[in-house]
Amino acid sequence: MSKPPYPLVPGPFEKSWLERNARWKIALGCLTVMGLVCAFVVGLLLLVETGFRRSEVYKQALERAEQSSEVRELVGVPVVAGIATGSIHLKDDSGYADLSIPISGAKGKGVIRLVAVKNGGPWQFRTLQATIGGRGESIDLLAVQPAEREF
User: Fold this and answer.
1) Do 53 and 61 touch, CB atoms closer than 8 A?
2) What number of other Cβ atoms are within 10 A of residue 123's Cβ?
């Protein structure tokens, strides 16, 4: 007679680490949920920030700040934009933008503040100014003429 391929009496069943430490299920579950919520929030913030950075009004404001000799002198070159806050509302060919864009450079930090409207044509800035840290007065960026763009 041949020997069976399995034992006639099964060995003791070994529990997994998670089954032996059942209290960790709650902690690991909470950490998983918190991680997913954090990932969702970070993804949402990245999506909004990418939308701001791709908008024409954001690009125009940053371009004017980079062209301003006062901003370049006080902040330094290159002018690096931080995470913008505010809102941009677009509907068809019209829109409204109200943004604050933190900027920094080798010499200092500041904030670009803009309010702009769009009515079927290009963006029209109502307010476009840079406030550089420590200075009481703002730099009027409306006076800076944008560079000609090649299409």
Assistant:
1) no
2) 20
Say which DSSP state 21 is in: T
pLDDT-based confidence at residue 111 (cuts at 50, 70, 90): very high
Residue 43 is predicted with a pLDDT of 95
The two three-digit tokens of residue 118, written as one number: 């769009």
Instruction: Write down the mean pLDDT value for the chain.
Output: 86
Tokens coding 144? 């800076």
Q: Which residues of 23-50 are buried (b: 16+ CB within 10 A; e: fewer)?
A: eeeeeeeeeeeeeeeeeeeeeeeeeeee
How far apart are the C-alpha atoms of 106 and 108, rounded to whole Å?
A: 6
| Residue 59: count of CB within 10 angstroms of its CB | 14
Band of pLDDT at residue 151, cut at 50, 70 and 90: very low
The model's pTM: 0.72
pLDDT band (50, 70, 90) for residue 102: very high
Please list, in sequence order, all residues whose beta carbon lies within 8 angstroms of the beta carbon of residue 113, skipping any fewer than 6 positions away.
99, 100, 101, 127, 128, 129, 130, 131, 138
